[in-house]
Amino acid sequence: MEFRILGPLEVLEADGVLPLGGEKQRAALAILLLHRNAVVSRGRLVEGMWGGAPPVSAGPTLDTYVSRLRKLLRADGLGPRLVTRTPGYLLRVEDGELDLQRFEVLLDRARSALASADHRAAGGILRGALSLFRGAPLEDLAHVPFAQAEVGRLEELRLGALEQIGRAS
């Protein structure tokens, strides 16, 4: 399974792109991906999806979205992907499955190459890292409350990589 947030949110399986549902359900998945392998509280999810004034139905609606995501992100040989853990939920994402994690690993490699004065290798690694961007990060969720800060943070990472390419040249 491949999770992509460096552009529109996508989840790919061997059969193709999974249908992720509506905006709020996609937002729940994106928040869980940004905090992969860690428990995200229900309150944090609700606030991230609806902001400071969630509807009265936010809790039950969140339950529905999580239930749908569980069905969509089927268990694999390692067990379920999305589990309930007090006080919220945990999404299991293996190494290499999230484009952001791959980008961060490549940035670290490029920094090491630059520190070793291997500018040619650093430039190639950085170009590979930047190729993971398929557009603006989370571009289909940019106006959902949680995304504003995250999009800014991810754009800063991209700009930093572009600046490092300049130093590697």
List strands and helices in order, with pairings.
Layout lengths: L1 E3 L5 E4 L2 E2 L5 H12 L4 E3 H9 L7 H15 L9 E4 L2 E4 L7 H17 L3 H12 L16 H22 L1
Antiparallel strand pairs: 1-2, 2-3, 4-6, 5-6
Helix pairs in contact: 1-2, 1-3, 4-5, 4-6, 5-6
What does this protein structure show overall?
The protein is mainly alpha-helical and 169 residues long. Helix content is 51%, strand content 12%. It is built from six helices and six strands. The protein has a three-stranded antiparallel β-sheet, with no helix packed on it. Strands 4-6-5 form a three-stranded antiparallel β-sheet. A hairpin with a 2-residue loop joins strand 2 and strand 3. Helix 1 packs across helix 2, helix 1 packs across helix 3 and helix 4 runs parallel beside helix 6. The longest helix has 22 residues.
Brief digest:
This protein has 6 helices and 6 strands; from the N terminus they run E-E-E-H-E-H-H-E-E-H-H-H. It has 169 residues and is mainly α. Strand 1 and strand 2 form a beta hairpin.
